[in-house]
Inverse folding.
């Protein structure tokens, strides 16, 4: 109900537009005719069986994967082969990976300040102050001097989230952020993400955490075999799925 | 044993204090037990080794130190004085072994250059060295200062590079090769992974060509054939040509060692760097290379050591490294039959330098290990 109001009232400006987008790996057609519009402040959860192309789709948004047909426009910048555009998009889009991808040779604090210092040219002291703020927000300021290898999986993922936030991104992409975590650590990462969602961040999350989708998502997207099969508000999506494949998928993941 | 019989103290969960480990499970006793007497085979091996050392050590010590002669005018005097090694030969020709034919009144310049080199190396390798920042700045101009000191000119008496020999030559070739082959190897390794076909195939071609040819061939090319290729009238210093060839040779091997390291860095690392908007060079310099080089340290140091020892091959084209000086000196009728002493001496020199490199690499590996600090 709350999410309905939000969706009805304050649909912000368009943050991401994906239009008639296709992608192939060699001759394998991974993404087929993807059309998606994401408004600023919107929280979107993408789900679907493995191999359905959900990760590939969000990786196209910051050009970690290249699309071959159609348009992707992020924050007003079209993704083409132009490196300038790609870098401009990447500066504004943060990404959190399944396997954290923290830099193991740098301390937690250095992980967080690297991009602000080298990409945004923020002075070191300022970058460190900002980093400490975000580390406090993800509740691990005391680990700032440690190396990633000394932290638990959940702590590492929270550092990864803080690291992305340090670039003050307009959009955050989450690529299965809890899939590599031990069960008791999933909650701490989800709590961080929920907090972020409540603060109004534009988010696209590929995840199997349906509880998270129900709590914070404005829209749930279901993908299968490279296509967007169905998208709806969470209530509708979970209680009244339209497509057969969505029903099958939901029955498989909700009744175990 | 008596402890076990005492009444056991009961602790509430979570209140058990830390106790010291039982006797003999730490310290030297543990080390001896675990490393020397852990199993019957181990005991036999330990005893055999002790027996072997007992048999061989007295002879070695007697020959090389106790019965050795350190001061004598020639071989016969040596023999008359004692039965062991005749180090007098080395002592007498110490200058030749160290400086080659570098004029004796100018040798202070080499000593000064070497002292500066030691300073620079200490600053490079030792992170907490006092005045490190200043010294590192000096390291950038050191090559020019050293060249000036050794070759002369600009106020100093010029010395021909033909006069350079002995350990000095080894150190010059070794240090130059090491300092230049690492960055060149990094560039070649990155070039080999490039998306641009021209760069990629140029690097692959260079690496495969150099690795497919023996160093001696390249040195011959440097000493004789290069003058056919170069425009007539170009006089290209022989030592400089050798330095270039040795560097190119080592850099090809270095490139392959580093490529192995680059491949071992997880793909997620570059993805994370890309996703943050880092450009190619900062991403390589700050994220990929530090990890790749750390992984490649053993291979890199192996290549360094190989390069350092390969410098003895310059004897083939008439440069006199310590081995060359030794061989030339053996022809002296006053000192005939001392090849054991000469080769042993040169071997010790090489062993000390190479062992130092190897130990430093181990220290570096430990220091850079950021996983779980125990």
């Amino acid at each position: 109900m709350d999410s309905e109001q939000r969706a009805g009232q304050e649909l912000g400006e368009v943050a991401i537009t994906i239009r008639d987008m296709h992608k192939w790996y060699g001759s394998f057609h991974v993404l087929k005719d993807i059309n998606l519009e994401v408004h600023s402040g919107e929280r979107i959860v993408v789900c679907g069986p493995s191999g359905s192309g959900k990760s590939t789709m969000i990786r196209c948004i910051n050009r970690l994967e290249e699309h071959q047909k159609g348009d992707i426009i992020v924050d007003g910048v079209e993704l083409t082969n132009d490196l300038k555009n790609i870098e401009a998009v990447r500066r504004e889009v943060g990404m959190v990976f399944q396997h954290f991808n923290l830099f193991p040779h740098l301390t937690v604090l250095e992980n967080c300040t690297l991009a602000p210092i080298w990409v945004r040219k923020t002075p070191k002291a300022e970058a460190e102050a900002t980093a400490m703020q975000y580390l406090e927000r993800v509740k691990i300021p005391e680990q700032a001097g440690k190396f990633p290898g000394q932290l638990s999986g959940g702590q590492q993922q929270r550092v990864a989230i803080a690291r992305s936030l340090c670039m003050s991104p307009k959009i955050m992409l989450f690529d299965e952020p809890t899939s590599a975590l031990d069960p008791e650590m999933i909650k701490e990462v989800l709590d961080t993400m929920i907090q972020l969602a409540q603060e109004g961040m534009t988010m696209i999350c590929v995840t199997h955490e349906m509880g998270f989708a129900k709590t914070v998502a404005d829209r749930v997207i279901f993908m299968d075999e490279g296509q967007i099969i169905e998208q709806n508000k969470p209530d509708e999506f979970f209680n009244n799925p339209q497509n057969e494949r969505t029903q099958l998928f939901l029955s498989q993941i909700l009744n175990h | 044993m008596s402890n076990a019989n005492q009444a056991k103290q009961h602790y509430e969960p979570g209140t058990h204090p830390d106790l010291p480990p039982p006797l003999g499970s730490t310290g030297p006793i543990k080390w001896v037990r675990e490393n020397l007497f852990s199993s019957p085979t181990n005991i036999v091996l330990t005893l055999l080794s002790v027996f072997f050392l007992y048999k061989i050590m007295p002879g070695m010590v007697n020959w090389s130190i106790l019965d050795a002669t350190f001061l004598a005018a020639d071989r016969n005097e040596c023999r008359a004085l004692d039965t062991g090694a005749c180090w007098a030969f080395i002592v007498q020709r110490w200058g030749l072994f160290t400086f080659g034919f570098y004029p004796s009144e100018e040798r202070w310049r080499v000593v000064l250059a070497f002292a500066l080199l030691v300073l620079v190396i200490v600053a490079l390798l030792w992170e907490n060295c006092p005045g490190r920042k200043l010294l590192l700045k000096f390291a950038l101009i050191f090559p020019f200062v050293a060249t000036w000191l050794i070759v002369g000119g600009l106020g100093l008496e010029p010395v021909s590079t033909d006069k350079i020999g002995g350990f000095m030559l080894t150190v010059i070739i070794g240090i130059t090769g090491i300092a230049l082959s690492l960055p060149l190897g990094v560039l070649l390794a990155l070039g080999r992974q490039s998306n641009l076909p021209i760069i990629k195939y140029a690097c692959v071609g260079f690496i495969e060509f150099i690795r497919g040819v023996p160093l001696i061939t390249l040195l011959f090319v440097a000493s004789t054939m290069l003058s056919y290729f170069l425009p007539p009238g170009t006089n290209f210093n022989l030592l400089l040509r050798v330095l270039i060839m040795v560097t190119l040779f080592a850099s090809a091997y270095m490139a392959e060692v580093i490529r192995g390291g680059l491949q071992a860095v997880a793909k997620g690392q570059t993805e994370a760097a890309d996703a943050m908007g880092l450009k190619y060079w900062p991403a390589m310099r700050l994220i990929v290379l530090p990890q790749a080089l750390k992984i490649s340290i053993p291979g890199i140091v192996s290549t360094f050591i190989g390069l350092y020892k390969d410098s003895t091959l310059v004897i083939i084209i008439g440069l006199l490294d310590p081995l060359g000086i030794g061989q030339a000196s053996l022809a002296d009728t006053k000192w005939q039959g001392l090849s054991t002493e000469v080769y042993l001496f040169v071997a010790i020199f090489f062993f000390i330098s190479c062992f130092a490199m190897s130990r430093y690499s181990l220290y570096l590996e430990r220091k850079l290990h950021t996983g779980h600090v125990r």
Notes: The mean pLDDT of chain B is 88.
